[in-house]
């Protein structure tokens, strides 16, 4: 069993707050349903849409759920695609 000590818990709280800010910034710019490119673990990229807001998972990872994929993915693996200008 590993003992974190006081410093370890302080870092955990700081990291969680940083991840919460990352998620809040993502959610402010990208609503649910945003078209994204997702990089799979094998390096393959697929285009899909988000089906949730970004959130902090278990205090250690910023994640998001996307359509057509089981489970969630790290937010750093998801890139929003440019939206084409609306037709005039």
Describe the structure.
- With 88 residues, the chain is α+β, with helices and mostly antiparallel strands.
- Helices cover 28% and strands 27% of the residues.
- The N and C termini lie far apart (63 Å).
- The N terminus is likely disordered.
Radius of gyration computed on alpha carbons: 16 Å
Strand residue content: 25-35%
Domain module count: 1
Query: Helical segment tally?
Result: 1
| Cα shape | globular
Which CATH architecture?
Roll
- The strand line-up of the biggest sheet is 2-1-6
Mean pLDDT: 85
Q: Tell me about the biggest sheet?
A: 3 strands, antiparallel
Structural class: alpha+beta
Helix content percent band: 25-40%
How do the SSEs run, as a string of H and E? HEEEEEE
CATH fold description: SH3 type barrels
Distance between the termini: 63 Å
Total strands: the figure is: 6
Summarize the structure.
The chain has 88 residues and is of the alpha+beta class.
Note the topology.
Blueprint: H1 5-29, E1 35-39, E2 45-49, E3 55-57, E4 61-65, E5 72-74, E6 78-80
Antiparallel strand pairs: 1-2, 1-6, 3-4, 4-5
Keywords:
1 helix, SH3 type barrels, 3-stranded antiparallel beta sheet, 88 residues, single chain, 27% strand, disordered N terminus, alpha+beta
């Amino acid at each position: 069993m590993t003992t974190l000590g006081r410093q370890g818990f302080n870092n955990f709280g700081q990291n969680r707050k940083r991840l919460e800010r990352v998620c809040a910034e993502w959610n402010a710019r990208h609503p649910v349903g945003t078209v994204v490119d997702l990089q799979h673990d094998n390096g393959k990229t697929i285009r899909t849409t988000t089906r949730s807001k970004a959130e902090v998972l278990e205090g250690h990872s910023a994640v998001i759920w996307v359509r057509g994929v089981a489970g969630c993915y790290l937010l750093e693996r998801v890139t929003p695609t440019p939206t084409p200008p609306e037709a005039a």
